[in-house]
Automatic annotation (TrEMBL):
<feature type="transmembrane region" description="Helical">
    <location>
        <begin position="20"/>
        <end position="45"/>
    </location>
</feature>
<feature type="transmembrane region" description="Helical">
    <location>
        <begin position="57"/>
        <end position="78"/>
    </location>
</feature>
<keyword id="KW-1003">Cell membrane</keyword>
<feature type="transmembrane region" description="Helical">
    <location>
        <begin position="185"/>
        <end position="205"/>
    </location>
</feature>
<dbReference type="GO" id="GO:0043190">
    <property type="term" value="C:ATP-binding cassette (ABC) transporter complex"/>
</dbReference>
<dbReference type="GO" id="GO:0022857">
    <property type="term" value="F:transmembrane transporter activity"/>
</dbReference>
<dbReference type="GO" id="GO:0006865">
    <property type="term" value="P:amino acid transport"/>
</dbReference>
<feature type="domain" description="ABC transmembrane type-1">
    <location>
        <begin position="21"/>
        <end position="209"/>
    </location>
</feature>
<dbReference type="Pfam" id="PF00528">
    <property type="entry name" value="BPD_transp_1"/>
</dbReference>
<keyword id="KW-0812">Transmembrane</keyword>
<comment type="similarity">
    <text>Belongs to the binding-protein-dependent transport system permease family. HisMQ subfamily.</text>
</comment>
<dbReference type="InterPro" id="IPR035906">
    <property type="entry name" value="MetI-like_sf"/>
</dbReference>
<dbReference type="InterPro" id="IPR043429">
    <property type="entry name" value="ArtM/GltK/GlnP/TcyL/YhdX-like"/>
</dbReference>
<dbReference type="InterPro" id="IPR000515">
    <property type="entry name" value="MetI-like"/>
</dbReference>
<protein>
    <submittedName>
        <fullName>Polar amino acid ABC transporter permease</fullName>
    </submittedName>
</protein>
<keyword id="KW-1133">Transmembrane helix</keyword>
<feature type="transmembrane region" description="Helical">
    <location>
        <begin position="147"/>
        <end position="165"/>
    </location>
</feature>
């Protein structure tokens, strides 16, 4: 059997692929910044004294970490309208990715905080720093440096997981790939190119985040 590949036939569709890639990059950037910020807040709550907020955040973390991302996305898109909250596909995709990364990054960052020597907390109190100042200036930076490679990996995983949002008709890279495949029937060519684009984006994102860590955290990543 002779197989003929026709990558040249994809050339007219490059604007669509690049538009989908840009949408994926934008969505990932927003989700990464918001999700890590949410994780820092959650790690602070989960590392503090027992209370209602700590318990509620713990429930949120366990629910998200033990349910599929696609189910979380469908709940936001199809479930929330039953409560009167309707979101666009883009808003739902971003919210789902934020919530997902926020839960995972909470536990990753909390792991870094838990190994912080008690002497650092005590030294900060002696210097007259408030709890918030102690957390942001003394505890958080070295904690982030310790777990930064794991946090970067989780951010990349969330970017790769963004392909799922094509299921709710959000026009990111996978959606565009499916659309082009349905028009050309060049399944191998379309998904081969899409795979290379995701691979390149993953490698670039990882290197960029690790470079940021080396610059701002002194991370040995």
């Amino acid at each position: 059997m002779t197989v003929t590949l026709d990558f040249a036939a994809l050339w007219p569709f490059w604007p669509e692929l690049l538009a989908g890639l840009w949408t994926t990059i934008t969505l990932t950037l927003l989700a990464t910044v918001g999700g890590v910020a949410l994780g820092i807040l959650g790690a602070a709550l989960r590392s503090g004294k027992p209370g209602v907020l700590r318990t509620l955040w713990g429930i949120y973390v366990e629910v998200i970490r033990n349910t599929p991302f696609v189910v979380q996305l469908f709940f936001i898109v199809f479930g929330l309208p039953g409560l009167g909250l309707k979101l666009t596909a883009g808003q739902a995709a971003l919210l789902a990715m934020l919530i997902n990364l926020g839960a995972y990054s909470t536990e990753i960052i909390r792991a870094g905080i838990q190994v912080t020597p008690k002497g650092q907390w005590e030294a900060a109190r002696v210097l007259g720093l408030t709890k918030v100042q102690t957390f942001l200036r003394v505890v958080l930076p070295p904690a982030l440096a310790r777990i930064y490679p794991a946090l970067v990996s989780q951010c990349v995983m969330v970017m790769l997981g963004s392909s799922v949002v094509s299921q709710v008709s959000y026009e990111e890279l996978t959606f565009m790939a499916n659309l082009i495949q349905s028009r050309t029937f060049l399944s191998f060519e379309v998904y081969f190119v899409t795979t290379l684009l995701y691979l390149a984006l993953s490698l670039l994102m990882r290197q960029a985040l690790l470079a940021i860590g080396r610059k701002w955290l002194g991370s040995g990543a």
